[in-house]
Amino acid sequence: MALMRRLALTLAVLALPLLAFQAPPKKDTTKPATKPAATKPAATKGTTPGKAAAKPAEATAPEAPAGPRVYVAPFKGIWGLDIHPELCQKFVDDIKFKKPDLVVFTLDSQDLKEGFYTAERNEDGTGVFEDDSQRRMLKLLDEELRGTPTLMWVQDSWGFSTLLAFAFEDMYMKPGARLDGLGRIAERYGVEDPQVLAKFREAVVAIANGFFEVGGYDIMIGRAMMRPELKLSASWKGRDLVWSQDADGTWVVDGSEKGFAAFDAETAEDLGLADGSASDLGELMFLRGFREFQVVPSEQEPSMGAGEKISTDWTKAWNRAFEQAEELWQESRSKLQLDAGKYTDLAKRNYEKIVELLEKNNAAYTKWRMTRHPDLNQLKDQIERWKQEQIARNKAKKDSQGGSGTGGGRGGRGFGSPGGPGGG
To answer: Is residue 420, in this structure, part of any structural domain at all?
Structure first.
């Protein structure tokens, strides 16, 4: 018995070194089993839901808008009406607020549907050139957006609007687009006196050439596009293109003394005026090196671009203002022709509403003047005459009630009434 107990004790002592030797490997085998679970939880669906949820959240971070945020600002319609400094101001204010990565101004404007020879004019107007408006527009584009990447994409331009295209150093064209119609500038200096003509012509052309200077284009181009007697050609000196006011260059743009220089999309690109041609916005962005981009949306209508919404609302607003003024004008004319004395007060109220509408919307007032209506000063003068006549009638009525006087008159006829200003 003692022998057996001694034998068991001996075996136990002999086993102790073996147990001490095998213990460390057990710890080592547990570490590899736990480390992969900590570093790759996403690969094991059943492990630690909290950590597994955190990894997909990090993976979805790239859902932020891909590519640059592009603000598209459309100039579309008639220069001086739809394309107006007030619209440009709205664009500038919104661009400053939204801070896009790139601003794309688009231009689609025709003063004439075809050209000088067909002279088929647009129903909505033919474009209006006002010196102060041009200066204001140029200042907005040159100074207010300085530091913001901008470019011009010309859909088509015939008329005064072509100036706007040349205000941008980066210009692109749509295939088939034109840069034409600046011969209309000649309408601004068409006077008979040769000395007056020369001075007036230089002043008007200088104002218009301000757009070319801001865009970095040679003013010879602008002069040839605005003065029929000047020619235009281009030659290459090494890699530089040199313009000349004659027809002696390698590429003759305008060799006539009676015509105006103009460019189509292909010629503009070949001569370096345009950086390229693009059929749609996606193609334009691809030319700029972007495969993906985001158009800055309107807060009111997210399905529309912010600039498109502003442009659409602007056009509707000024047209609505003009139409309301026109309705008030026509009602006043018809009522005054029917009975001037009876409807003087109605006409006066209508005139006051017309003045209020047109003072708030310069584009509506521009069309008002284009359609041969009396200007605001004439309307205000007529309103004042009616006021004075009303004062005189009230005084006469008061005097009559006091036993003196013979009563008031019928009231002024106003514009458009028989025998009145503007009437038949």
So the answer is: no
pLDDT digits (tens, 9 = 90+) for 291-322: 999 999 999 999 999 999 999 999 999 999 99
Cα-based distances in Å from 42 to 30, 33, 58, 63: 21, 16, 12, 19
Would you call 9 helix, strand, or coil by DSSP?
Answer: helix
Amino acid (1-letter code) at residue 409: G
Q: By CB neighbour count within 10 A (0-12 exposed, 13-18 middle, 19+ buried), where does 265 fall?
A: buried
Rounded to an integer, the average pLDDT of 4-12 is 43
Using CA atoms, how far residue 107 sits from 207, 314, 333, in Å, is: 20, 16, 39
CA–CA distance, 14 with 18 (Å, rounded to integer): 8
How many helices (H) does the chain have, and how many strands (E)? 13, 10
Q: Is residue 408 part of a domain?
A: no
> From start to end of 60-113, where are the E strands?
69-76, 102-110
Q: How many residues does the chain have?
A: 424
- Residue-wise pLDDT for 144-163, tens only, equals 999 999 999 999 999 999 99
Boundaries of domain holding 354: 314-401
pTM for the full model? 0.75
Q: Name the maximum alpha-carbon separation found in the chain.
A: 159
